[in-house]
Design goal:
339 residues; alpha/beta; Rossmann fold; Hypothetical protein af1432; 2 domains; five-stranded parallel β-sheet; 55% helix; elongated
């Protein structure tokens, strides 16, 4: 059953409206604007408010203005009940966000018809919003799955280990948190990070899978995967895909300017690229690969710390060390299965 909140400082008006509405709806009442706001803003909100304008203290206009400024309550339909019939008063109330007016003295059929109409519209709006929200979340889930699958696709062509993408994405999240990134930025980075090597899809097998050291020509071809990854992802207004492109393009840049593809230096390298570079190298050093055994953690940590200011952003080294205990837990949790 819908709940209607009646707000009026005149007891006789409350009694009339309650008599009209209570056979059909659950009715709450408030005799002041302050009480109305307490009811509407606390707990389960009413489905519709019948709101008097002229009240002592907080008047109906201010109650309406306050509720419409509240992100969680602004969708509650408000019908002003008033004896004022001047057109400018109606226009002012409607500009504040009220849905309708009912003029005193009340006619039961009019009151019931207006309330029924606006409740139906409100229910339709809520149902539409629910469906849109559900569809949006479905699309978001699909988008994330596609991005994650593309990230894994690049690993299937490489000689890296199966859980590399998962581990390094979590490492990025942990380092980002330790570095002071906000929660939205961190989650976007975590989701974009698996796309860092998607450009390897375009790298020839004889180079990508070569167990030995690459010659200069082969190395030049290998370096093209960063730009290829950016080209595969493309340019988008979407924050996630935009960051995925940044990560693909910048995660092999080095703090001292000796990286690729653009030879960016220092803060020219986007923060996301700097974090992914650190997480990617740490996982590479501590994982078995066909061409090497996993390094001891202590040696990998020492190598990364020594590379602060050359390969890595020196300001990220403290964040890396702060996140390291949790990273080691992740390393154990997502270790590769024994051959």
């Amino acid at each position: 059953m819908h709940t209607i909140l009646i707000v009026d400082d005149a007891p006789e008006n409350i009694d009339i409206l309650r008599a009209i509405l209570s056979p059909h709806y659950h009715v709450k009442v408030a005799s002041t604007g302050e009480r109305a706001l307490k009811i509407a803003l606390g707990g389960v909100p009413p489905d519709l408010i019948l709101l008097d304008i002229m009240m002592p203290g907080i008047d109906g206009y201010e109650v309406c203005r306050t509720l419409k400024a509240n992100a969680d309550k602004k969708h509650i339909p408000i019908i002003f009940v008033t004896s004022m019939e001047e057109q400018e008063d109606e226009e002012f109330g409607l500009r504040l966000g009220a849905e309708d007016y009912i003029i005193k003295p009340f006619r039961p059929a009019v009151v019931l018809a207006r309330v029924k109409t606006h409740l139906a519209l409100h229910d339709q709006t809520r149902e539409l919003e629910r469906r849109v929200d559900l569809r949006t979340r479905e699309l978001e889930t699909t988008r994330l799955q596609i991005i994650q699958r593309l990230g894994r696709a690049s690993e299937f062509r490489d000689n890296e280990t199966g859980n590399h993408v998962l581990r390094m994405a979590i490492y990025c999240r942990l380092i980002g948190v330790a570095a002071g990134m906000g929660p939205v930025e961190v989650e976007t980075l975590y989701t974009a990070a698996p796309m860092h090597d998607v450009g390897k899809i375009g790298t020839p097998d004889e180079i990508l899978l070569k167990p030995g050291k690459l010659n200069p020509q082969e190395w030049a071809t290998m370096q093209k995967h960063a730009q290829m990854g950016a080209d595969i992802i493309g340019e988008h207004d979407d924050a996630l895909l935009s960051l995925a492109r940044v990560v693909a393009l910048s995660h092999h840049e080095k703090w001292d300017g000796s990286g690729y593809p653009s030879g960016l230096h220092g803060d020219e390298i986007p923060l996301a690229g700097r974090i992914v570079a650190l997480a990617d190298v740490f996982d590479a050093l501590t994982s078995d690969r066909p061409y090497k055994k996993a390094w001891p953690v202590e040696e990998a940590v020492r190598t990364i710390c020594d590379a602060g200011g050359s390969h890595f952003d020196p300001a990220l080294i403290p964040a890396f060390l702060k996140a390291l205990p949790q990273m080691l837990d992740v390393m154990q949790l997502y270790a590769e299965p024994a051959a």
